[in-house]
Amino acid sequence: MFFGLNGAQLPLIAVVFVLALQIMENPQFVKSRSLGSLLSAVLKPSLVLFAVLFSAASVANASAEEAVARKPNVIVILADDMGYGDLGCQGTVEDVRTPHIDTLAEHGVRFTQAYVTAPQCGPSRAALLSGRYQNRFGFESNEWAYNPGMPRSVSLISERLKEQGDYATGYIGKWGITSKRHSYPPKRGFDESYWVQDGNIYFPDTPSKYNTQMHRGMEPIELDTYSTDAFGREAIDFIERHEDEPFFLLISYITPHEPMEAKESDLERFAHIEDPLRRTTLAMIACMDDNVGNMLELLKEKGLEEDTLIFFLSDNGGYPGNGSLNTPYRGTKSQMLEGGIHVPFLMQWKGQLPEGKVYEEVVSSLDIVPTTLAVAGVEAQPEWQLDGVNLLPYIVGRADGVPHETLFWRYKAWSKKPEQDGWAIRKGEWMLVRNGWAKAAPALYHLADDPEQREDLSRTQPERYDDMLKLWSRWDQGNAVPGSITK
Ligand SMILES: [Ca+2]
User: How far does the centroid of ligand 1 lie from the alpha carbon of residue 168, in Å?
Assistant: First the structure.
């Protein structure tokens, strides 16, 4: 196609154009000639014009095909310990301000039933990056006894995209998976990385009990500004340098994980909030939102919005210590209740996904790897044992059914506190959960009617209870002993 015309119409246009030109120059052009000389006078220049138009059309077609053939970029924006309620677009909390992140929902899809696989950083991220339940490879907890690092036998999305998709790959921000060197981003398929092991650093030169050494690649470096701004700056730099090739970029903000440290200029924006902890949380989130906004603006300026699939989610829920709100859900980070694992989750891909859609079926952070592979044109193999699905056909209504009939959790909190271990299964609108922190027996909740998990229906629904317990036990048989897989 060339300006809406196909190749068959081009000769006719050339003839009409040349004839019109000749008549404009000499109104007696047609009258004064025999049919033979008329054809000759018109057809010759028409052939020349046709040749010019045809080659122009070919060039236009080639660039159109090139544009279609370009593999899309994928950007994952990850918040840390940010509760379900703490985005303006969620509509459950009034004081939070995230106008830029909210545009992802406005121009894309907002998921109301999205889960991560653990109520804690390390195991949640291990699943997000591998596309597998972390329990399958013994990565059960942040605690070293239950955390073998990312085994080499488990490939990350970055490694698959390097090997089979020819993508430029970048990691920015908190890694948080493990401190073992073989698991560092540069060793796990990321071409470029600007990162910190445990996160938990905002201002340069701030003492911390965590491993807050910043790295560029494998080289230790010093943080030079407020880390949220540094991550935003690095994201822009990465995109500018890779705008002409497909890239995968994961930006892992520390926000709003402890320590609760915000910039003064951001705190001033929330001076009307009385509670100092909540004011700080909101200021930290607003700073992340500003940086996401800068990145979205860059994608727009570069004309990359229709070439870029963007995910936004949190790695687990908020908790009282960081003042982030899981509204309307009960429970917090480190718990198996909804507040620990039910997270904000957005996707935007202009031109490919519907705009302003609210998707209400259950999805998981496990779905990010299969969706990314599909977008990159990499065929997932059965031996990869991925636990998620490609979400795109479900969102646009091309697939029947739902992405997940069931989701499962197992979480060993701390080796010295086995009473805090928990597990859960969600099947349809029901959840059976043993929330270790409550030291309780498993409880059965009907989430559609009781999203706050207040009424345990295990006694009134004994068959459903048994059925879900059996399903969970069968799934658990496929899990590794925590910490047992080291290679
Ligand atoms: Ca976290």
Answer: 26
Q: What is the CATH number of the domain that holds 449?
A: 3.30.1120.10
Cα–ligand 1 centroid distance for 9 (angstroms): 60
Inside any domain, residue 486: no
Domain range for 229: 72-404
Domain total for the chain? Answer: 3
| Distance of CA 202 from the midpoint of ligand 1 (Å) | 15
**Counting beta carbons within 10 angstroms of the beta carbon of residue 274, is it exposed (0 to 12), middle (13 to 18) or buried (19 or more)?**
exposed
pLDDT in tens, 231-288: 999 999 999 999 999 999 999 999 999 999 999 999 999 999 999 999 999 999 999 9
Which residues are CB-neighbours of 38 under 8 A, at least 6 positions away? Answer: 30
Q: Look at residue 124 and give its three-state secondary structure.
A: helix
CA of 51 to the centre of ligand 1 (A): 62
Asked if residue 483 is part of any domain, the answer here is no
Determine the distance separating the centroid of ligand 1 and the alpha carbon of 195, expressed in angstroms. Answer: 16
Residue 458 and residue 394 share a domain: no
Burial class (CB in 10 A: 0-12, 13-18, 19+), 118: buried
How many whole angstroms from 199 Cα to the centroid of ligand 1?
Answer: 10
Is the residue at 1 inside a domain?
Answer: no
pTM for the model: 0.86
Same domain, yes or no: 58 and 119 = no
Give residue 234 CA to ligand 1 midpoint distance, Å: 21
Give the tens place of pLDDT for each residue, 436-470: 877 778 999 999 999 999 999 999 999 999 999 99
